[in-house]
Amino acid sequence: MWFAFDIIEGAFDYVNFGDHSKSAYLDRHTGTSLYFSIHGDSDEEPEDFGDDTRYVAIPDTRDLGMGRQLAIQFVSEVRPALRGGIRDAMKGSGGFRRLKDILNQNGLFDRWYEYEAQYERNLIIEWCAENDIRYTTELPADE
Asked: Which residue intervals of the chain are DSSP H helices?
C-alpha cells in the first residue's frame, strides 16, 4: 500500500501540535490515517486495532530529535556566536519562547522555521524507510 506523503505529514502535524495529547496511526491496508485525542473528536477504533502489522503509530517528533538539540544545531550552522546564549535560553520551562525571542532579535526567525520544516520532512522520510512505509508525493490524476 502506498500513502500520499501529505497524509503522513498531516498525521505528524496532528500528533505534534500543541500539548502532545493526540495520537495518529497509519493503516497499511487502506493508506489512510486514524486520529485520536484525549480531548474527544477521535476516529472510531477499529476492531483489529491491536494489529501492529496493520496500524503504525506516528511518533512524537521530540523522540526523533526535534527538541533542544535541533535548535543548537541550527544556531551552530547559521550563527555560531549565538550558540552559548541559545544553550542558556533553552534551559528550563519556556526555553522555546526564549529561543524564538533570540532568533527574532537576530533576524533568524524565518530561517529557523524553514530549517525546522526541512528537518522534520527529512525525519518523516527516514521514519518511513525504517518502518517500510511507501509513499508518493504525486498528486492523483483528475478523473
From this structure: 5-15, 68-78, 83-89, 95-105, 109-130
What pLDDT is attached to residue 139?
Answer: 57
Q: What range does the domain containing 103 cover?
A: 64-116
- Beta-carbon contacts of 25 under 8 Å, excluding residues fewer than 6 positions away, are 11, 33, 34, 36, 49, 55, 56, 57, 58
Where does the pLDDT of residue 143 fall: very low under 50, low under 70, confident under 90, or very high at 90 and above? very low
Total of domains in the chain:
1
- 135 falls within a domain: no
Residue 103: is its pLDDT beyond 90?
A: yes
Q: Domain for residue 30, yes or no?
A: no
